Prior knowledge:
There is one protein chain. The chain has five helices and no strands. It is mainly α. The protein has one domain. The longest helix has 28 residues, at 38-65. It starts with 11 loop residues before the first helix and ends in a 7-residue tail after the last helix.
Amino acid sequence: xxxxxTTERMDARIRAxxxxxxxxxxxxxxxxxxxxxxxxxxxxxxxxxxxxxxxxAIARIVxxxxxxxxxxxxxxxxxxxxxxxxxxxxxxxxxxxxxxxGLVSPPAMVGGFATLPFGIAIAQLVSDRSART
Length: 133
């Protein structure tokens, strides 16, 4: 069994999920652009990017709150909770800005958000399960 260094912040399964979301998002974007329009493809890509960045931000926040080992220095839970609220406000602001400015089509952007469960499911199927004890 190999140990991961304490500087590594994210679990391999989280990284695989992040990559899975990006790959599924790219595939959905190309499909939307080919089947409907370039704006639909761009909207799906924007939704997938927001979903992937959201997973990345959540993973960073959770990894800071839950130390990998007992020797890790304690984190300020209140500061990280505040950061989580700010992340949520930033997420809503980005989505409102993209939709409000007309840069994206809302139904197609929701299609981009749909890459989240597909990407996570695919990543969990192909990720290394040997790290579990």
